[in-house]
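hiii, so i know i said id send this last week but things got crazy w the move. better late than never?? heres the sequnce for the chain we talked about at the cafe, plus the structure i predicted for it. fair warning i was half asleep when i ran it
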Amino acid sequence: MTTSDLEQLIREMDPQLRDGEWAFCVVPEKHAILGRAIAVFREDEGVTVIIPHKEAKTLGFEVRYVAAWITFNVYSDLDAVGFLAVISRALAGAGISCNVFSAVHHDHLFVAVEDGKRAVEVLRRL
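okay and structure toks below
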């Protein structure tokens, strides 16, 4: 069951640091990697994919950002107000930048690899 209740979202977010390093790369529109990417976003300037860092290096892609992936295991409504603002404010206060991806079932954060464990600690203190 999804919720938009801010207090419940914070209480139940259960941030989990996933295994691996994830690379943000720009690839051609028709590249085969699109089918294996965990995220794809099409912008006017090009197609951004998030793929395993090792795979990006093997394929010779220019890696723009290497991230740790954190998933919130609470089912948040896509129209929930303030949840990601609270999250990003807490991380900003700790000097951690984040890139957010909201999917239908969960919200996901990508932070610099070296900040992954510390980001989860900051979020769990909320």
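btw The first helix runs from residue 6 to 12. thought thatd interest u
miss u guys!!
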